[in-house]
Amino acid sequence: MARNNPFCLSFGREPDRFVERFDAQATICDVLESDAPANNSFLIIGVRGSGKTVLMASTANKYRETKDWVVVSLNPVRDLLQMMAASLYEEKSLQKAFIEASINLSKFGIGLNLKKVPPISDIQIAINKMVEIAAKKGKKILITIDDITKSDNIIAFASAYQDLISRNYPIFLIMTGLYENVYLLQTDKRCSFLMRAEKLILKPLNITGMANQYAQTFACSQEEARRMALFTRGYSYAFQVLGYIMWDKECTLEEAIPFFDERMGEYCYDKIWGDLSSAEKKMVSFIAHSEKGKLKAKELVRLMDTNSNVYSVQRDRLVKKGVFDGSEYGAVSLALPRFGEYVKTVETEFSY
Predict the structure, then answer these.
(1) What is the DSSP letter of 191?
(2) How many distinct structural domains can be found in the chain?
(3) CATH of residue 142
(4) How far apart are CA 67 and CA 140, in angstroms?
(5) Residues 261 and 175 both lie in one domain
(6) Which of 18, 56, 52 lies closest to 241, judged by CA?
(7) Quick count: other Cβ atoms within 10 Å of Cβ 123?
(8) Digit-coded pLDDT (tens) for 55-102
(9) What secondary structure does DSSP assign to 255-314, as a single string?
């Protein structure tokens, strides 16, 4: 009988084996459970595969079964306001109150057609009424949106959401997104509330936590488990991919590396590399080809034939995108495991 692999290659799904981000989740929960919350919105930002969706989902699940909370998960490619209204209307603990309040959403294909009551023609007005009723019933509302990008749907939702929080309703929002997509939204004046949202930029996973998971799963020594954890550089998706391969093939770390490179390239690195600008690719490529896998700032400025101001902007963007590790003063290296080896195999536009 095949053993069920406790690791997962699918993005966003909560695997059997994962390292929880206790600090980040505690930061969100402290606000949600506060009597006087200082904020209503959270942005979880990180590179692809850093665990943004898992953190958001695990936080939402914590409140999904709590009677005082209504959790609404929205799909960013759909009409967010209509989807929110439908989700609220389907909430069993509130549906009777909505009907008693004669909220007729039949124009939008939602709920019952109350023939004696004219249908509401504006979806935002309907949502305002529903949220007000929920608040009077002692309910708090948590909305989650995964992988946000700048779109008409998001901008329309942002306007409606800003109106709701201005009315002091107990409504909260958690969103996830790539740094570059969040930046585009933040610079749109119609989404100004995002500037005030609390931003959680995901850091590498705790090495000890990863090692403990590996040691428990593979019944190996702490030394070997730590070696595996360090190999992943704390990158959440790499933690899953390495574990999946070693479980599936019953192999050593060294034997897993070719399969690791193939999976990471196909499932993750192709997209990360493709989303970089030409200048960013050039900077990454210089580091990939460096002798020690890192370069001093002065050397990189020289190689890029640029000045320190331009370099600082590009470096900062790559750190925020999760591609660069800028933790060492005066130097940068690649944050993702074996990304340098990946770059060497795919680049064609630069020669050395």
Answers:
(1) G
(2) 3
(3) 3.40.50.300
(4) 9
(5) no
(6) 18
(7) 21
(8) 999 999 999 988 899 999 999 999 999 999 999 999 999 989 988 888
(9) HHHHHHHHHHIIIIIHHHHHTS-HHHHHHHHHHHTSSSSEEEHHHHHHHHT--HHHHHHH
